[in-house]
């Protein structure tokens, strides 16, 4: 008799653990949501109050018209108000030169600077004086002859106003007077030429450059030196065309102030100038109008207190 064998599968299917946890979470969330809905239904709504309007706090300030000033920036180079090239007015040799006649030397108005050899011009003065003396003597002689001719005419018994000019020697007197006038003018010319041999400063000035030396021969028109005044300096400032309407009128009663600033990398220096004039037309090339700012006594020689002199040639910013 054959025996049959029966085999049983001993493995049992068990659900994974993570699915158990996921199901528990879903159940808890469902219970929590139900409790939340129940409590919300049982809660009474708080009584509503009508909000009262709140007036905002404001401050009232009365308005009044006022002028607002703003600055217009610009820049330019400082120049002397007056700059002069001294030239010889007579010819000759430079005989004497002041030791201060060099770049940076300072001269007061009327102070001697140099001398052109005056000897020839002194001789010319003496000659002109001698000619004048001679013509004066001829005039006296002509006047004496004319007086004598009048007396002789009176002896004729005829009216003096009927006498012809030649009989009274009036043309000779007129000629002598003209000769005296010419001689006197010649003397004045000779004296002026002699004065021109002495070169003096026309105003208080610094020397910018010197073009002559001792013993040099110069002709009329030869440049001797270049000087510039110390009473004032000016700056030519460009203003854009669109800013021109905002410029205040230039008036001595209400001057327009200008602050000039120079920065040399170590310190910043400032000066207070004023606008003195504006040019007549707008520059056609760059469409700007130039205004002129002036600073009096830039070196502090006439009492102005200056921390630093404002020298010609310095580039400055302005506003």
Walk me through the structure:
By secondary structure, the chain is α+β, with helices and mostly antiparallel strands. Among the domains are: 74-78 and 230-318, Elongation Factor Tu (Ef-tu), domain 3 (Beta Barrel); 118-195. The protein is built from three helices and 14 strands. It has helices at residues 17-42, 119-155, 170-196; strands spanning 74-80, 83-87, 92-97, 106-107, 112-116, 198-200, 205-210, 217-218, 223-229, 232-240, 257-263, 268-278, 288-296, 315-318. The strands form three sheets. The protein has a six-stranded antiparallel barrel with strand order 1-10-13-12-11-14. A hairpin with a 4-residue loop joins strand 11 and strand 12. Helix 2 (119-155) packs antiparallel against helix 3. It starts with 16 loop residues before the first helix and ends with a strand. The model is unreliable at 1-14 (pLDDT under 50).
Task: Give the SSE map.
Layout: H1 17-42, E1 74-80, E2 83-87, E3 92-97, E4 106-107, E5 112-116, H2 119-155, H3 170-196, E6 198-200, E7 205-210, E8 217-218, E9 223-229, E10 232-240, E11 257-263, E12 268-278, E13 288-296, E14 315-318
Antiparallel strand pairs: 1-10, 1-14, 2-9, 3-5, 3-8, 4-7, 5-6, 7-9, 10-13, 11-12, 11-14, 12-13
Helix pairs in contact: 2-3
